[in-house]
Write a structure and sequence with these properties.
Number of helices: 12
Low-confidence stretches: none
Helix content: over 70%
Structural class: mainly alpha
Largest sheet: none
Order of helices and strands: HHHHHHHHHHHH
Number of domains: 2
CATH topology of the largest domain: MetI-like fold
Distance between the termini: 37 Å
CATH class of the largest domain: Mainly Alpha
Shape: globular
Number of strands: 0
């Protein structure tokens, strides 16, 4: 009995070490000179090179790249915040005919790998003449993120008491007013979780920018870091500093919304699909 009580905490401690240490190791790498990276790989830096962060920011053009990432991420998430809860609500309540079929067809998008859509996606964007623009990326992220967000948000509307909706109709509220004033506030924890997960994906994604962007001034952080990495030589300290800089906004986002994420995930676990 005593042994089994310790198994869970030990497993969790080992898991936390495996998760946290790569981040700590990257911080160590960002503060080492390139020779020290190879001679003192796993230990903390002996002479921390804090100037690497300023060099990475200036030489790597990370300021412009971070601005581009903010524009792409915020624009995509705002659009998803508007349309995905509406779609989830329409597919969970009301008398919409064939809503289950529509929902299952929408979910097909979650099971198609983006790499299978490279050629048709690029041809579509080329025909629309928006290749090498933020519009192409935003359209790609909204279309790929919509099924995922609807899938996460829909259960929150399914468990909404029908009596609330019926009472609101008796009071003369329209369907949109019921959604905006009653259903959406109740589903907000699930909405926030879905949007934050999607924001993290968009911020860190390399596939769509690599496919749809050509001009360096439009590159977001992941693609800019690939360019900064170099072709023949890799400056490991500066590159690691750039990686840490790119990770900071998402870490801050998670810390700020950590409580909401936990509550939202806990609420989702108690919901029936």
């Amino acid at each position: 009995m005593k042994m089994t009580k310790w198994i869970g905490p030990i497993v969790l401690i080992i898991w936390v070490i495996f998760v946290i240490y790569p981040f700590i190791w990257t911080v160590f790498m960002s503060l080492k000179t390139d020779p020290e990276v190879f001679t003192n790989t796993w230990a903390p830096p002996t002479d921390p090179q804090w100037a690497h962060y300023q060099q990475a920011w200036e030489e790597g053009g990370l300021g412009l790249a971070m601005t581009n990432s903010f524009i792409i991420t915020v624009s995509s998430v705002v659009i998803l915040a508007i349309i995905s809860p509406m779609g989830a609500y329409a597919l969970s309540t009301g008398n919409l005919r064939g809503k289950k079929i529509i929902f299952y067809l929408l979910l097909v998008g979650m099971f198609i790998a983006p790499h299978m859509m490279m050629v048709p996606l690029y041809k579509l964007m080329a025909q629309l003449r928006i290749v090498n623009t933020f519009f192409a990326l935003i359209a790609a992220y909204v279309s790929s993120g919509l099924p995922y967000c609807v899938f996460l948000i829909r259960p929150a509307f399914l468990v909404m008491p029908k009596s609330l909706e019926e009472s609101a109709k008796v009071d003369g509220l329209s369907t949109f007013q019921i959604y905006r004033k009653i259903a959406l506030p109740l589903a907000m924890p699930a909405v926030i979780v879905a949007l934050i997960l999607e924001a993290v994906f968009i911020w860190n994604d390399l596939f769509y920018p690599l496919l749809l962007l050509k001009t360096e001034s439009l590159f977001p952080l992941p693609l800019r870091l690939i360019v900064f990495r170099g072709t023949f030589t890799i400056r490991y300290g500066l590159l690691s500093a750039g990686i840490i800089i790119s990770a900071v906004p998402m870490v801050i986002l998670y810390v700020f919304f950590a409580d909401r994420i936990r509550k939202g995930m806990a609420a989702q676990l108690g919901m029936k699909a």
